[in-house]
C-alpha cells in the first residue's frame, strides 16, 4: 500500500514540476515580448528625435 502511495506522490510531484516549468516558460516568453516592444519603442522614439531635432 505504501508503495502505491509513493508512486502517486511521485506522479503528483512530476505534474507540479511540469506546471511550474510551463508557468516559468510563459513568464519568460511574456518578458521577452515586453522587452522587444520596449526596444522597438525606444528605436521609434530615437527616429522621432532625429527627425524633429
UniProtKB/TrEMBL annotation:
The name this protein carries in UniProt is: Uncharacterized protein
Amino acid at each position: 500500500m505504501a508503495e502505491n502511495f509513493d508512486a502517486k506522490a511521485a506522479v503528483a510531484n512530476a505534474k507540479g514540476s511540469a506546471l511550474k516549468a510551463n508557468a516559468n516558460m510563459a513568464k519568460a516568453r511574456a518578458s521577452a515580448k515586453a522587452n522587444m516592444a520596449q526596444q522597438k519603442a525606444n528605436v521609434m522614439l530615437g527616429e522621432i528625435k532625429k527627425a524633429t531635432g
